[in-house]
């Protein structure tokens, strides 16, 4: 298991094919692209402690992706008859992207399920009328996952900053009150077990009349904490049998994410939501170019996906 008390061995995660102790590094093949993510841009209205994406009001390393750019990928999916089922949006805060409502509408109108990750604060609240139109037109095909880092105001604001709890709760209540298909994402960076954490969220949901089953792991997703400076084992080809895990269950076996770097002419495809900046993981500009096996050559691959058992996708 990861050892957060030790610094990451600088010899690890250097060679995409071989681990530091000379073993063959594990790879994950794309078996079936079911979820295509779009990173809407790295700007966010808040700065969280240890944000997975390093998003903030100042980080514009990833530009706002446009409706025209998203349409090009949906056209490619249609032309190649890919069996994509879901279009998902993450950021940054997706509702800060000027094209987010048209992009959601475009994906829904083409028959995809749509998932949007959000902090449910002012950027979402400013778009309530347009979201209601999408909800009334497409029903539960649109789902919203709200980040609630802890079930207490103190814990949530330790991560998200002072006074971030009231507006988040306003957004959560509004989504629930209007019958949106919704889920919640929390974090496990406190010294409490999963059972205690889910019990805490259950109390919050009951008190606030939020229709999310805290025992349902698809409705309350608890993500492991990630520290890229902490030591973590590298994943070799032998780890699948040792851990009893199938490579087909990894996020990069069924997902890809599109990002657009600041100043770039075109977006680029990445293997998953957690590696938006690392150019070593770029898979090309087109989805057709992204059908490559992914070497698990990043601490996030080990700590979040293989050992943490987590995925940003809903299933």
Order of helices and strands: EEEHEHEHHEHHEHEEHEEEH
Structural class: alpha/beta
Q: What percentage of amino acids are in beta strands?
A: 15-25%
Helix content: 25-40%
**Radius of gyration over C-alpha positions, nearest whole angstrom:** 19 Å
Q: Main beta sheet, described?
A: 8 strands, mixed
Low-pLDDT runs = none
Protein topology:
Layout: E1 3-7, E2 27-28, E3 35-39, H1 67-79, E4 86-90, H2 100-109, E5 113-118, H3 122-125, H4 128-138, E6 142-147, H5 153-160, H6 165-177, E7 181-187, H7 194-208, E8 220-223, E9 230-231, H8 239-243, E10 255-259, E11 268-270, E12 294-295, H9 299-306
Parallel strand pairs: 3-4, 3-10, 4-5, 5-6, 6-7, 7-8
Antiparallel strand pairs: 1-9, 2-12, 10-11
Helix pairs in contact: 1-2, 2-4
Explain this structure to me?
Helix content is about 30%, strand content about 15%. With about 325 residues, the chain is of the alpha/beta class. The strands form three sheets. Strands 8-7-6-5-4-3-10-11 form an eight-stranded mixed beta sheet, covered by helices on one side. It has a two-stranded antiparallel ribbon with strand order 1-9. Helix 7 (about 195-210) links the parallel strand 7 and strand 8 (about 220-225). The longest helix is centred in the middle third of the chain and has 15 residues, at about 195-210. The chain starts with a strand and ends in a 9-residue tail after the last helix.
Tell me briefly what this model is.
The protein is built from 9 helices and 12 strands. It has 315 residues and is of the alpha/beta class.
Q: Any descriptors?
A:
315 residues; eight-stranded mixed beta sheet; single chain; 28% helix
